[in-house]
Design brief:
Layout lengths: L14 H4 L17 H15 L6 H8 L3 H5 L5 H13 L14 H18 L3 H5 L7 H15 L8 H29 L3 H13 L2 H6 L1 H11 L4 H25 L3
Helix pairs in contact: 2-5, 5-8, 6-8, 6-9, 8-9, 9-13, 10-12
Length: 257
């Protein structure tokens, strides 16, 4: 049986290291239809719709139509649940065929980076949780293992693989964190991303100090605004930045020690 919501004392470990089995359905809970998978799925829906700040175990129980104690039969506490949730969304990231020896490592790395970005963009709350937990679940580990295998095929020395991966995926993480914050700002203002961008640009362009004092920034921003909607511009910037990172990996791989 789960621990009734009691938080662990002292530094907490990962739920995956604790090797906790899934609890059997409890008789009387929603006609026996409640289980960990359903709880995780409902949590993801709530987080996507309302964000991390508004999420609570009580709110989750209401969404499921059960009592909070019923939820705690299947997960010990909120931390454990959020770890399960992170691993669940990691399963959304498609993996390249690692058995294809003819595949270009650059293409496979792009597949992984873009999959990571799409998942973080779909779940803006995820970046805030990724640094909080160890992410040792089976889906997360499958993704991590794929990134290492692909990077190893690049020819990077083994003791430099983690550094090269950091360049790629910390870039993606930072890119998506900024993207998520921008989307939150737009939602709070009650406008679309394109509307918010236009409003900001209208205010900026009306200020002579902006053009006089920050000429280079003004020119780049004005040109950026002429190249399509925010989502389109963001996608173009992401692809180019990713190409820059991959090119940098190639340069460092070929540079003498």
């Amino acid at each position: 049986m789960a621990g009734g919501g009691k938080q662990m004392s002292g530094p907490r470990t990962s739920v995956w290291l604790a090797r906790k089995p899934a609890s059997a359905p409890r008789r009387g809970d929603d006609q026996g239809n409640l289980d960990r998978d359903r709880i995780v799925a409902a949590t993801i829906r709530l987080l996507d719709a309302e964000g991390l700040e508004k999420f609570s175990m009580r709110r989750l129980a209401t969404e499921l139509g059960v009592t909070a104690m019923s939820v705690y039969w299947y997960v010990d506490n909120k931390d454990d649940l959020l770890e399960y949730v992170l691993d669940e969304i990691a399963g959304e990231m498609g993996l390249p065929d690692l058995s294809d020896e003819s595949a270009d490592w650059r293409d496979q790395l792009r597949v992984l980076a873009e999959a990571y970005r799409m998942t973080l963009a779909a779940h803006p709350w995820a970046p805030r949780l990724l640094g909080r937990y160890l992410n040792l679940g089976p889906r997360s580990m499958a993704f991590s293992n794929a990134t290492i295998a692909v990077m190893a095929r690049s020819g990077i020395p083994q003791d430099r693989i983690t550094g090269a991966l950091a360049a790629v995926f910390q870039f993606v993480y930072g890119f998506c964190t900024i993207e998520g914050l921008y989307k939150e700002r737009c939602r709070a203002a009650g406008v679309s991303e394109d509307e918010y961008f236009r409003d900001v640009m209208n205010v900026v362009s009306a200020s002579p100090e902006w053009t006089e004092n920050y000429r280079e920034a003004a020119e780049v921003t004005e040109n950026w605004g002429k190249q399509g909607g925010v989502a389109e511009m963001r996608h173009r910037d992401f692809e180019y930045a990713l190409d820059v990172v991959i090119a940098g990996i190639e340069v460092m791989r070929d540079r003498p020690s």
